[in-house]
Design a protein that fits this description.
The complex is a heterodimer of chains A (211) and B (511). Chain A is an alpha/beta fold and 211 residues long. Chain A has one domain: P-loop containing nucleotide triphosphate hydrolases (Rossmann fold). Chain A is built from 8 helices and 6 strands. With 511 residues, chain B is mostly helical. Among the domains of chain B are: 133 residues, Orthogonal Bundle (Helicase, Ruva Protein, domain 3), CATH 1.10.8; 149 residues, Orthogonal Bundle (Cyclin A, domain 1), CATH 1.10.472.80. Chain B is built from 26 helices and 2 strands. Classes of the chains: A alpha/beta (211), B mainly alpha (511). Chains A and B meet through strand 2 of A and helix 8, helix 12, helix 14 and helix 18 of B.
Chain lengths: 211, 511
């Protein structure tokens, strides 16, 4: 069930990228501070929440983690619905996982809100000795595509907090400046996806608390 | 030294070691990878081989069967396995009832292989697995499979060590499938299916079991496009309307696509969701009766978690509902409770087929033709057998370990086995079995259940013979092979009576 804290916003963020790049461990590192070398393959969807403070706002981040294997893309459109942020993850030691970033991006824009905040994330930074994706190359690519960019390590925690927080901040900025359309603001929360106004979503208590 | 003959151990110890399978051993973990790698000394495995994780054995999640009952069941299952075709054709209701009660752990692997038709497939394709196994496989599949090997049941002793026997076999089975069906390749959800099979049988058997599940039980689930699983999501949702209108309306209102909550349930046949005792019971029934069992489990879980107004009041959004369905209360997944609930869901194979038809029509209207046309779904062991009638020799049991037995011809061995089992039965029968009070009597049992016990008996299990194909048409090829019997199928043939006196009386009312 949801957390007891009250919050100002709920942001749905999806983790996408090839199988085995560390999406599930980024999720567990950020929401539970856990890392597992032998975490189970993700079949279907996993998700977790964490509440963070940004300026004076309390943000509840709902992170959805999806299966990376190509075959599952047929069913991932349902996961993108309502997402306002995405971390497109690749493995810095496996160039192929980076090469598919473009395809993932297309997939994302096909199904998600056009204003979605996207960060390209090079994970497994701890494997620097095995690196096959130069940082500059990825950075250039991100810039060209208008994506944020960061390298992380779910294993040793490097930049995990920073990556998520930057994405959440960027989403918040967009929402606060009303840069996004009314339609996408309503997607900010999943508690009541059918036509609520942004005002209705602000300053609410925990959505699933009845008492 | 214990004498083992065709699955029977002369000294009745705590477990019967089956000889057709090398891994069935629910009591001991000797020689497992975890011990070889020096893990086990400080880590206790449970009786299923788990050293941790949420699916591990717990008294609360399972329902133990007294040893005497288990011994009786073993005798009955050995007898069924010895005369498999007759039981499947003439007494399938009994096979079903006994699968519902739970297959004895010592014989589970063998029974699964027989039920699924994997045994027949293996016999009819001798040398095929070795051939597939010797091929390197397509690099793109090999890469993905290798990445997944250490991510299947990491808390099970068989799969705990990197590169250990379990992971090696898992690789062999999955890679063999990609060579066997290059157009299908590998889909991640096949790994847990293969792993569950490998916990119960050697690699070759597990391979044929996987083939049967992918092609007969759940055709199309793992194919490119994943259309079959999406279609089944719609079918599940439509069936829910009848089983729990409240849950249905809630999911509808919050626009929760079935694919969001049922993908892992169905693609893995609940092997990653339920406590282990329940996984095994669900698989016993699933391999006997087919996919309707998977639908029923899904319906039970949805109904339990979302079936009352009170529960819905506490979960007001899509995400909250999803969270609820990811954290199913243990009491609903408890072995005994879950099995009883599954048996009560009024959803038959015919219902599934009817809804399949409706949803397929809708799909074609909205999305066009299916890109990948899977073979027709087989609803259970009997239909699988009737569709591809086995030869007599396909059903013969081929023990791989025979100790202290002079090399007899197969027939001789069989005769001996029967005599032995008769002796065993008489031993069991002479002191009449003390009535063990059964908290969960089955109404269909032929013996009156013990004195009324606390929980009320569930309504009679629905007789589902109507959903089975007309016997007379399809049975014939097998009947030709079977020795002639003048008795109507409802009664036992003289042969059965002679060797199955105990099997016909159900003293065991544990569900």
């Amino acid at each position: 069930m949801g957390s007891d804290d009250s919050y100002n916003f709920v942001f749905k963020v999806v983790l996408i990228g090839e199988s085995g790049v560390g999406k599930s461990n980024l999720l567990s590192r950020f929401t539970k501070n856990e890392f597992n070398h032998d975490s189970r393959t993700t079949i279907g969807v996993e998700f977790s929440t964490r509440t963070v403070q940004l300026d004076n706002y309390t943000i509840k981040a709902q992170i959805w983690d999806t299966a990376g294997l190509e075959r599952y893309r047929a069913i991932t459109s349902a996961y993108y619905r309502g997402a306002v942020g995405a971390l497109l993850v690749y493995d810095i030691s496996k160039h192929l996982t980076y090469e598919s970033a473009e395809r993932w991006l297309k997939e994302l824009y096909d199904h998600a809100d056009p204003h979605i905040v996207v960060m390209l994330v090079g994970n497994k930074r701890d494997l620097d000795t095995l690196r096959t994706v130069p940082m500059e190359e990825a950075k250039d690519f991100a810039e060209k595509k208008g994506l944020m960019y960061m390298e992380t390590s779910a294993l040793d925690s490097t930049n995990v907090e920073a990556a998520f927080n930057e994405v959440l901040t960027a989403i918040h900025t967009k929402v606060a400046s009303r840069e996004v359309t009314r339609g996408s603001i309503s997607a900010v929360t999943l508690s009541n996806p059918i036509g609520p106004t942004s005002e209705a979503q602000e300053g609410r208590g925990g959505c699933c608390k009845s008492a | 030294m214990a004498k083992i003959d065709n699955g029977r151990q002369s000294s009745d110890t705590t477990s019967i070691r089956t000889v057709s399978s090398s891994r069935i051993d629910d009591e001991s973990s000797l020689g497992s990878d975890s011990e070889i790698n020096g893990f086990a000394s400080d880590r206790q495995t449970d009786k299923y081989g788990f050293i941790g994780g949420a699916q591990q054995y717990s008294e609360a999640s399972s329902q133990d069967v007294p040893t005497e009952v288990l011994r009786q069941r073993e005798v009955k299952w050995l007898d069924m396995l010895n005369h498999w075709d007759k039981w499947m054709i003439k007494r399938f209701d009994k096979v079903r009832l006994r699968s519902q009660k739970g297959i004895p752990p010592a014989l589970r692997g063998r029974a699964w292989l027989y039920l699924s038709g994997g045994k027949v497939k293996r016999e009819q394709n001798q040398g095929k697995f070795q051939e597939l196994d010797s091929q390197p496989g397509e690099p793109k599949w090999v890469d993905v499979i290798e990445k997944d090997l250490h991510r299947q049941f990491p808390f099970h002793e068989m799969f705990v060590s990197r590169g250990g026997h379990g992971q090696q076999d898992l690789f062999r089975v999955l890679k063999a499938y990609t060579v066997y069906r290059p157009e299908e390749g590998y889909c991640q959800a096949q790994a847990p299916i293969a792993a569950v099979l490998l916990m119960h049988m050697p690699a070759e058997d597990a391979f044929w079991g996987l083939v049967q599940i992918c092609e007969k039980y759940l055709p199309g689930y793992y194919s490119p496009g994943l259309e079959a699983i999406q279609l089944d999501g719609e079918i599940l949702f439509a069936l829910l309307r009848r089983v729990s209108p409240l849950a249905f309306r809630h999911l509808e209102k919050h626009k929760i696509d079935p694919i969001l909550y049922m993908t892992e349930w169905f693609m893995c046949a609940f092997s990653r969701t339920l406590p282990w005792a329940s996984v095994l019971r669900v698989w016993d029934m699933f391999l006997c009766d087919g996919v309707k069992i998977i639908f029923r489990v899904g319906l039970v879980l949805l109904k339990c978690m979302l079936g009352t107004r009170e529960k819905l009041k506490a979960c007001q959004g899509q995400y909250e509902t999803m969270e609820l369905l990811r954290a199913i209360e243990p009491r609903y997944m408890q072995e005994g409770y879950l099995v009883r609930e599954i048996l009560e869901v009024p959803v038959t194979a015919r219902d599934v087929e009817r809804e399949h038809h409706t949803q397929l029509k809708r799909w074609k209207k909205n999305r066009g033709e299916l890109n990948f046309k899977p073979p027709p779904r087989m609803h259970g062991a009997r239909l699988i057998m009737l569709a591809e009638p086995p030869r007599r020799q396909d059903l013969q049991q081929n023990p791989t370990i025979v100790l202290e037995v002079p090399p007899p011809t197969p027939q001789l061995k069989k005769g001996k086995g029967e005599r032995k089992s008769k002796k065993k039965r008489s031993m069991k029968k002479s002191p009449p079995i003390v009535e063990i009070p059964n908290p969960y009597p089955l109404a269909r049992d032929s013996t009156p259940p013990p004195p009324p016990s606390d929980p009320p008996a569930p309504p009679p299990v629905m007789d589902e013979t109507p959903e089975i194909m007309p016997q007379t048409e399809t049975v014939s090829p097998l009947q030709q092979q079977a020795p002639p019997s003048d008795l109507p199928p409802a009664k036992e043939s003289p042969l059965q009576q002679s060797s199955q006196s105990l099997s016909s009386t159900e003293q065991d009312t544990y569900l």
